[in-house]
Specification:
Keywords: Signal. By secondary structure, this protein is α/β, with parallel strands linked by helices. The chain contains 11 helices and 18 strands. It has a 7-stranded mixed beta sheet, sandwiched between helices. Strands 9-8-10-11-12-17-18 form a 7-stranded mixed beta sheet, with helices on both faces. A two-stranded antiparallel ribbon has the order 13-14.
Length: 383
């Protein structure tokens, strides 16, 4: 492990023991928030990326060359993420980057990847602007994602609240500095209004805030039946906990910022909350991946979504490099955009060339019952 002053970097060469490689390694990058409020996700993204590289090297690497992985801590901050991406591209000479799970961070590093022609595949950065230029409507050539988007996520939340739960009056708590939260809020409001729902109020806060009592008081007075939470897990858990302490028990529906770590903060107040996320945690197809993770790192994973998306992202990059037959950035990006029917852990990836998003990526709605995530409903675009 080496330290570069302003961030931590891990250089991991996952070669099989005793293997002799005649060629230079193919260097890939992984950006993960290993410190800060998203560290629980970052640790899992880091670990599963290590595992994937160890696996591919045990199978002979890519293009007859070993794969080397460089991991940097983004700290969940744009400035650190930009510095990390620049170092990966300019110093480490990465072929491609498995990107972040934050829309704002992914948007911040996009110009670097585009200039250097280094493909970046985001894990759970869901804002449309991550991959598509709003002015032209065309995808950025080197920006991709492995997850669904905020318009889809916001639409699911609106339709679920209004049609399934029959709740016609909503309040929204949102991080005003987050591209992710603001995007999801926008798409929820648009769809909810078209369905006939009324947004009684929107209540802003900042990342790191810990006291939401003033916003809760106002939301309670508004008569909202349901609270929409397009945020990250710490703030969402505090909002739920403080609402319960103040005797207010609306239905809570949140997005993929959910984490099992919320129980440590909100406890029993998490009961009967709903969460739109990428997979059902109890899906049998995940058992082999969970078992491999547990064996390699000596403990079972907590963030099932993170290890699934992280593993999917690495294998999508491996596949693109293999099909490109070269480490040239333009060729790898082209291969990634042409991905069709690639079997990953939880779905078959076909990349939409018009958006650089997965085509028809399914989503899961979880309900917390007796302290456990249970699959309430599975949703596929077009349903």
């Amino acid at each position: 492990m080496r330290r570069f002053g302003w961030l931590w970097a891990w250089l991991l060469v996952g070669m099989t023991a005793g293997a002799a490689w005649a060629a230079d390694p193919i260097v890939l990058g992984k950006l993960a928030a290993l410190t800060g409020s998203g560290a629980t996700w970052g640790e899992h993204y880091q670990n599963i990326s290590i595992l994937a590289v160890e696996e591919i090297n045990a199978k002979g690497g890519l293009l007859g060359r070993p794969v080397e992985l460089v991991i940097y801590d983004t700290k969940g901050r744009p400035e650190d993420t930009v510095n990390a991406a620049r170092r990966m591209i300019e110093k480490d000479k990465v072929v491609a980057i498995a990107g972040t799970n934050y829309s704002g961070l992914q948007i911040a590093i996009r110009p670097l990847s585009e200039r250097a022609q280094v493909p970046i595949l985001a894990t759970s950065a869901t804002n449309p602007a991550v991959t598509v230029d709003a002015k032209t409507g065309k995808p950025y050539p080197y920006s991709f994602r492995i997850c669904f988007t905020d318009p889809y996520q916001g639409t699911i939340m609106a339709e679920f609240a209004y049609r399934k739960l029959k709740l016609a009056k909503a309040a929204i708590f949102h991080d005003v500095g987050s591209d992710y939260a603001e995007g999801m809020k926008q798409f929820f409001v648009e769809r909810y209004a078209k369905l006939g729902g009324k947004v009684a109020g929107t209540y802003g806060y900042r990342d790191g805030d810990v006291d939401f009592r003033a916003q809760i008081t106002n939301a309670k007075v508004s008569g909202a039946q349901v609270v929409i939470l397009p945020g990250l897990y710490k703030e969402m858990a505090l909002i739920i906990k403080q609402a319960a302490e103040m005797g207010w028990n609306p239905v809570f529906i949140g997005g993929d910022g959910y984490s099992p770590a919320m129980y440590e903060i909100a406890g029993k107040a998490m009961e009967n909350t709903y969460w739109v996320t990428h997979i059902a945690f109890d899906d049998p197809v995940l058992k082999p991946l969970i078992a491999k993770y547990t064996k390699r790192f000596g403990k079972p994973p907590v963030e099932i979504v993170s290890i699934t998306l992280g593993y999917d992202a690495m294998y999508a990059l491996f596949d693109a490099i293999r099909r490109a037959g070269t480490t040239d950035g333009a060729a790898v990006a082209k291969a990634l955009s042409q991905t069709k029917g690639l079997q990953l852990v939880d779905f078959k990836l076909t990349m939409d060339p018009k958006t650089h998003d997965p085509f028809n990526k399914p989503a899961a709605i979880l309900k917390i019952v007796d302290g456990k995530e249970t699959l309430f409903e599975k949703v596929t675009p077009g349903d």
